[in-house]
Amino acid sequence: MTWLVTGGAGYIGSHIAAALIDAGLEVVVLDDLSTGRAGFVPAGAAFVECDVRNAHEVRAALVTHGVTGVIHAAGMKYAGLSVAEPEYAYGLNVGGTVAVLEAMAAAGVSSLVFSSSCSVYGTPASDAVDEATPVSPESPYA
Q: Of 11, 88, 90, 141, which one is the catalytic site residue?
């Protein structure tokens, strides 16, 4: 099984990629290096420099590397910037996700793990949240 990790040159994505490699799986990291670092890509992972919004290039990476599953961890991660530039945040986070899904469909890849943020819950009434907690986003990022 080969997994593509979008945003795999970022802090969280690189740790996901390393854990997959440690588990004996094949890994392809896809990142545009806008905030990630090539040096974070773990040894043993293939690397594709590409913007997740480019469905054609994402599809090519999926097909070229025989990817069977995607862990989608790429996206704009700054809540403050999302308030200042909501169109950019939407284009990258929503548009990027749509492009990845389109690429997966075109390449026949159906396994997806989507990395999200607890910021969708806003400021909850309790310290513990789970999927049943009502969402109350406080920024375009959320």
A: 141
State the burial class of residue 108 (Cβ atoms within 10 Å of its Cβ: 0-12, 13-18, 19+). exposed
For the stretch 120-133, pLDDT in tens is: 888 888 888 888 88
Please provide the DSSP assignment of the chain as one string.
-EEEEETTTSHHHHHHHHHHHHTT-EEEEEE--SSS-GGGSPTT-EEEE--TT-HHHHHHHHHHTT--EEEE--S---HHHHHH-HHHHHIIIIIHHHHHHHHHHHHT--EEEE---GGGG-S-SSS---TTSPP---SS--
121 catalytically annotated: no
